[in-house]
């Protein structure tokens, strides 16, 4: 009887993990995309922890699932990625080597914010401050 109970318990736990990963997969497949700013804290073997800051497009369902704490494991796909570089300017992640897409573990997300519009490369944070000033003048 105990072996049957333990077997059923193990199967239940495995199915919960598979369902959670399936939910993250399905959320990444959503057709509607939104711009986000995200901070990832990734544990590295040599340095302890690496921090990455990226703008990118993610599936709207993925963002909503994470922000509502319904998705807390699996992978998140960032598309059309942009990053902070030298001089506090935003750069394209896409180049001769990189496709412009990144995948991170959801567990590594430290912060994720919805962004109202696509960040402009070659410009810093002031592009968002100007919008706020224009909105306040209306």
Uncertain segments are 18-22
User: Hey, roughly how much beta strand do the residues contain?
Assistant: 25-35%
How many beta-strand elements?
Answer: 6
What percent of residues adopt helix (DSSP H or I)? 25-40%
**Distance from first to last alpha carbon:** 72 Å
Shape: globular
Mean model confidence by pLDDT: 79
Which sheet architecture does the biggest sheet show? 6 strands, antiparallel
Counting helices, strands and paired strands, the structural category is alpha+beta
Number of helices: 3
Radius of gyration: 19 Å
Order of helices and strands: HEEHEEEEH
Notes on the protein architecture:
It is a single chain. The protein has helices at 2-28, 60-67, 126-137; strands at 33-44, 48-59, 75-84, 90-92, 102-105, 109-115. With 138 residues, it is an alpha+beta fold. Strands 1, 2, 3, 4, 5 and 6 form a six-stranded antiparallel β-sheet that branches. Helix 1 (2-28) packs across helix 2 (60-67). Residues 18-22 have low confidence and may be disordered.
Short description:
The protein has 138 residues and is of the alpha+beta class. Helices cover 34% and strands 35% of the residues.
Features:
single chain; six-stranded antiparallel β-sheet; alpha+beta; 3 helices; 6 strands; 138 residues
Task: Give the SSE layout.
Elements: H1 2-28, E1 33-44, E2 48-59, H2 60-67, E3 75-84, E4 90-92, E5 102-105, E6 109-115, H3 126-137
Antiparallel strand pairs: 1-2, 1-6, 2-3, 3-4, 3-5
Helix pairs in contact: 1-2
């Amino acid at each position: 009887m105990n072996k049957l109970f333990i077997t059923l318990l193990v199967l239940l736990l495995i199915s919960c993990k598979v369902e959670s990963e399936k939910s993250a997969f399905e959320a990444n497949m959503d057709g509607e995309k939104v711009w986000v700013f995200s901070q990832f804290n990734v544990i590295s073997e040599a340095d302890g922890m690496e921090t990455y800051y990226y703008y990118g497009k993610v599936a709207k369902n993925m963002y909503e699932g994470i922000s509502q704490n319904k998705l807390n494991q699996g992978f998140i796909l960032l598309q059309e990625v942009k990053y902070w570089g030298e001089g506090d300017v935003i750069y394209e992640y896409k180049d001769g080597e990189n496709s412009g897409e990144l995948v991170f573990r959801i567990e590594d997300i430290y912060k994720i914010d919805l962004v109202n519009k696509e960040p402009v490369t070659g410009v810093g944070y002031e592009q968002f401050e100007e919008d706020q000033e224009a909105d306040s003048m209306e």
